């Protein structure tokens, strides 16, 4: 397992620092790699991640399976983040938590959210975006797997409740996963 964790970290570091060929590209890939690199080089905040809930959609699972699954993803993580000139959030993170089978699952990557302040209150904010990350699971022999998932959040000041949806098929995927993110 140690070998796979080191491979996972190497993949994350490579994606964070980006390659020159990708950075010199055009369009969305160039924007993406530039944002990742800038968040790596010029973070404004340090983030603490605390996994809060995993919920398996009851309409997409047999009751026998959901009764056995872990929905308390104990764990933690850390990251660094910044706001761009539009007030949008960019973050690099590494988190580890107990998965559905109560096994440790690491995940690390880049997240972006467009931020809105609907109440004209500078502290209250909503976000919608994505994360591009790499994860590894015990039931997949800890082989690193890339993921691209939606992100949504609601926050007040330095505390944010951030969440994603893992799509899937019957008895596989269809999981709501959420965590608390505190900025320092």
UniProtKB/TrEMBL annotation:
Top-level taxon in the UniProt lineage: Bacteria
Annotated GO MF terms: O-palmitoyltransferase activity
InterPro entries membership: LipidA_acyl_PagP, OMP/PagP_B-barrel
Coiled coil regions, renumbered to chain: none
Catalytic activity: a lipid IIA + a 1,2-diacyl-sn-glycero-3-phosphocholine = a lipid IIB + a 2-acyl-sn-glycero-3-phosphocholine; a lipid A + a 1,2-diacyl-sn-glycero-3-phosphocholine = a hepta-acyl lipid A + a 2-acyl-sn-glycero-3-phosphocholine; a lipid IVA + a 1,2-diacyl-sn-glycero-3-phosphocholine = a lipid IVB + a 2-acyl-sn-glycero-3-phosphocholine
Principal location class: membrane
Site (Role in the phospholipid gating) location in chain: 170
Signal among keywords: yes
Signal sequence, renumbered to the chain: 1-23
Record keywords, A-Z: Acyltransferase, Cell outer membrane, Membrane, Signal, Transferase
Keyword Acyltransferase (UniProt): yes
UniProt-listed Enzyme Commission number(s): 2.3.1.251
Cell compartments where the protein resides: Cell outer membrane
Catalytic site positions: 56, 99, 100
Role in lipopolysaccharide recognition (site feature) positions: 65
Family that this chain belongs to: Belongs to the lipid A palmitoyltransferase family.
Subunit structure, as described in the record: Homodimer.
HAMAP family: PagP_transferase (MF_00837)
Name assigned to this protein: Lipid A acyltransferase PagP
Organism per entry: Intestinirhabdus alba
